Amino acid sequence: MQVLLLGGHGKVALHLTPLLLNRAWNVTSVIRNPDHETEILALGKGRKGNLNVLISSLADVKSAADAQQILNTVMPDYVVWSAGAGGKGGPTNTIAIDQEAAKHFMTASFASTSVTKFLMVSYLGSRKNQPHWMPDDQWAGIVRTNTEILPTYAKAKQEADEYMTALAFMRKKEPAATRPFQAINLRPGILTDEPATRKVELGVTPKGRGSVTREDVAIVADLLLARADTEGWIDLVNGEEKVEEAVERVAKGKIDAVEGEDVEGMVKRFFP
Predict the structure, then answer these.
(1) Any idea where the domains of the chain sit in the sequence?
(2) Residue-by-residue pLDDT tens, the chain, 272 positions
(3) 236 and 212 in contact (C-beta within 8 Å)?
(4) Residues 203 and 246: beta-carbon distance below 8 Å
(5) Closest Cα to residue 179, out of 270, 109, 102, 75?
(6) How many CB atoms lie within 10 A of CB 199?
(7) What is the largest CA-CA distance in the chain?
(8) Cα–Cα dist 124/212, whole Å
(9) What top-level branch of life does the organism fall under (predicted)?
(10) Is 270 helix (H, G, I), strand (E, B) or coil?
C-alpha cells in the first residue's frame, strides 16, 4: 500500500511512520522544512516498506486542485492527515491549514480513483453538542477550551470534521459499484509525550478532559488503517483496555462518536 502522510514531522506522525513501514507499506511523508528530511528518512532504516519525503508547505494548498497535484505525485491508497498549524502563524494560518487545506485534501481524496481510506487525526472536543455519555463537568471543560482557550483551532477542526462527515455520507449514497471508502476520524484527548501504555478507552469516552500519549495515538491509527471495517468518529484517551481489543470492539460494534451531532445538517450545509 502507498500511504500519503501529511504533517510528517509532527510528533504523532513520527511515531506512526515506522509502524506503517513495518507493514511493508510505502510511506510518503510530507514536511514543510527541508532541514527535517534527514530525521524523517532515518525512520525508514531497516523497515519493510519504503520511505520517501516530499517537501511541500500545506499552507500553499489553496484548492482541491493543489491537493490533487500532490495525490497525482504520490498516487496513494491511504491518506493520513496528521498536520496542523500548531498555533504558529496566528489564527489566519490555523484556518488556512487545519481547516482549508484539510478540506481540500478531503475533496481530492474522496474524489480520487485510487484512495480508499482517509484518516484524520482530530481531537476529542471537536463537536458542537454534549454527547449523552459525557457528564456536565467534562463537557464544560471542552466548551471552555473551544470558546476561550483555543477558539480558532476548535472552529477549524469542527469545520474539517463536519465536512469529512458530510463527504462520507454522500459517498455512501453513490452507486453500489463504487469502491468502498473508509473515512476515519480519530479524536484523541489531551496529547502527552510519555511512552505508549497500549491501554486505551476508545470509541466513546466520558473523559472529555482525558489525555493520551502521542505514541498510543499512532498505534491506534496504525491498527485502524490495517482493517477494512473502521470508520466514523472514534474518540481516544488512555484507559484500561488493551489497544488491540479496543480496536476490535469498536470496529465490530460500529461505534461512532458522531452520535448526537446533526449529520443531516452537515450534509445540507455542504451539499445543499
Answers:
(1) 2-270
(2) 999 999 999 999 999 999 999 999 999 999 999 999 999 999 999 999 999 999 999 999 999 999 999 999 999 999 999 999 777 778 999 999 999 999 999 999 999 989 999 999 999 999 999 999 999 999 999 999 999 999 999 999 999 999 999 999 999 887 755 678 999 999 999 999 999 999 999 999 999 999 999 999 999 999 999 999 999 999 999 999 999 999 999 999 999 999 999 999 999 999 99
(3) yes
(4) yes
(5) 109
(6) 14
(7) 50
(8) 11
(9) Eukaryota
(10) helix
Kind plus residue range of the DSSP H or E element containing 238: strand 232-238
Write the CB contacts of 270 (distance below 8 Å, at least 6 apart in sequence): 162, 163, 166, 167
Q: What is the pTM of this model?
A: 0.96
Instruction: Centre a 10 Å sphere on the Cβ of residue 22 and count the other Cβ atoms it contains.
Output: 13
Tell me the CATH class for 2-270.
Answer: alpha beta
Identify residue 151 by its one-letter amino acid code: P
As a whole number of angstroms, the distance between CA 28 and CA 25 comes to 10
- The residue behind cell 452507486 is 175
Separation CA 50–CA 74 (nearest Å): 13
From residue 255, how far is each of 71, 138, 229, 239, 258 by CA, in Å?
30, 20, 11, 17, 9
Distance from C-alpha of 102 to C-alpha of 91, rounded to nearest angstrom? 15
Q: Which three cell numbers stand for residue 88?
A: 504558529
Let me know if 107 is exposed, middle or buried by CB neighbors in 10 A (0-12, 13-18, 19+). Answer: middle
Cell of 233: 468518529
Q: Is 253 exposed, middle or buried (0-12, 13-18, 19+ CB in 10 A)?
A: exposed
